[in-house]
Structure formats: structure tokens, C-alpha cells
Amino acid sequence: MRKALADSEIETRRRYPVPAETDPAIEALVQDIIGKVADKWTMLILEALQEQGTLRFTQLGKAVGRISQKMLTQTVRQMEQDGLVHRTVHPVIPPHVDYTLTPLGESLSAAFCGVWIWAEAHHAEILRAREAFAAARKA
Amino acid sequence: MRKALADSEIETRRRYPVPAETDPAIEALVQDIIGKVADKWTMLILEALQEQGTLRFTQLGKAVGRISQKMLTQTVRQMEQDGLVHRTVHPVIPPHVDYTLTPLGESLSAAFCGVWIWAEAHHAEILRAREAFAAARKA
DNA sequence: TCCGACACTCTCCTTTCGGTGCGTATAAAT
DNA sequence: ATTTATACGCACCGAAAGGAGAGTGTCGGA
């Protein structure tokens, strides 16, 4: 247990002030977008539509995996609202609805591509880190 | 209102079966990782540490923006567990804790970089899409 | 002697997430 | 006449996320 005096020596290592923030309105908007877009279901739907092109409701559900109808509807509606997907309703019976990525959606999908690659490349490393953490905790 | 017969003509446009899935265990793990990593707070903390280098608890909180202590602690602990951040405790009084990205964390940050750029580049477009959606809804 | 600083933890409390199940419209197939 | 298929909306419910505020331990400074 060292004294608090040692603190200053640590402190001097980085002394830059908190940098000036950019326009808070834009910042808030970007955070909002990140909050919506960095969502598990959004990412999975994006991914599914990206590699399948066009899918209808139930097909999309199967492509995503274990997602409930409710979440699928909800997420897809939000994505439509944000201009990420295009929803085409064919007025036939029984109903038929097609979903496709808009150019905006495609660009986001491309941006997320790096994250997918990262996840596939580093999952083993994460598992190791978790084990190391658990082991270190016992001691 | 057209008849359901028109359906088949729509249907024939894409006729590929759902493609074979990859190893379900890996797939589940990747989805789990995505679920953890594609989190608003994780992304914001990653971003903050990426551009500030090293931060201590309260500094990190300010850098992120409006985050509660609870969420900050919680997220940062999860990130530590997954090997994304390194946490250094200086045993002085009052306490002093430093947070830095690990190489793994830096690589994830780099992967997310594209998403940040995307968000900054397209936020205006999203706003327009939302307005268009709201306008179309009235009609 | 009391306050403030730091990095939390702990206890409520409210909001959101997400699942299940039911209803609906209508034509075609059995 | 009954069933089936499709893409949902709606209501209900438990679980989890997340915020607010108080408490903690110790020391240096007023």
C-alpha cells in the first residue's frame, strides 16, 4: 500500500485534456444510430439479406435462425424506417411480402463485414481469455 | 387485388434452397460474441479507449458520454473478461484504476471503424429516410 | 474535525426485451 | 366442409436491461 503521493507520478503520464467534443446534436444522433444498428437482430437480418438477396417473411426468419415472429417484424420495421431494407407487399392472398436491402442497407452490411470476419477470426482467442480470467479469479 | 395465381410468377424469381449451414457450435459461438460485442456501450467504450489510449474510470465515463456508473463498470468488466481491455489497479488511496485496450481490443476497434465511418457518413440519409417513412405513413 | 476525491458496490425502481399464443383474411386444395 | 398457407397485429407475461441514489474506505487538505 503506497501513499497517495505516488499518484501524481502516475498522473503525469497522460495530461491531455478531454478533447473538444464535436457538435452534440450530431454526436447524439450518431450514438442513437449506433444504438439501433449495433443490435443483434439487425446484424443478423442484414447478414441474411446480404447473402440471400431477396427473402420473404418466413424465409427470412429461417435464415436468421431462432428469432420469434415478433422480433422479426419489429426489427424489420425499424430497419425499413431507417431506410435499410425495402419492403414490397404483393396484394395477393395468401399475403406475400418481399424484403431486400436498400443501397444504404448494403453499405451498412459491408461496414459490418469486418466485424464478422473479426468474430470468426478471434473467437478462439476470446475463449482463451475467458478461461484465463476464470483461472485468475480463483487465485 | 390479384389472384393467388400470380404468386407463382413472383416465386420463380428466386428458387435456391436455404444454403447448408456451417458448424452449428461455431455459429452459436459467433452469434454469442456478436451479441456481446455488438453492444452500444461496448462500442462506445472501445471508441473512447481507442482514441484516448489510457483512461481511468471517471475519465472513461466522461469520454463515453451519458453512461451510468453501473453500466460502465459492468461493460468494462465484461470486456476485461473477453480480453478486450486491460485493467490496471494501482493500490493507492484514493483508488486509481487505468483502462487500456489489449491488442485484441484494438483489432476489434479497427473492425468497428468501418461502422463509425458509415454512421457519420450516412446519418443525414437516415434522417431523410425516417421523414419519408413518416410522410408515407400518413397517406 | 469535517469534506472531498476515487472507484466502485448495493439496493430499489422503471423501462424495454423478447417469447407464447390467439386472431384474421381468403382462396385454393382436399 | 374443412384444412392450409402467409404475414402479420394484439394482449399478456416473465426476464433482463439500465438508471438513480446512497453507502464505503481511507487519506490529505481546509
UniProtKB/TrEMBL annotation, chains A, B:
Keywords: DNA-binding, Transcription, Transcription regulation. InterPro entries: HTH_HxlR, WH-like_DNA-bd_sf, WH_DNA-bd_sf. GO terms for molecular function: DNA binding. Pfam families: HxlR. Signal peptide: none annotated. The keyword Transcription applies. Residues 23-127 form the HTH hxlR-type domain. The keyword Nucleotide-binding does not apply. This is ArsR family transcriptional regulator. It comes from Methylobacterium oxalidis.
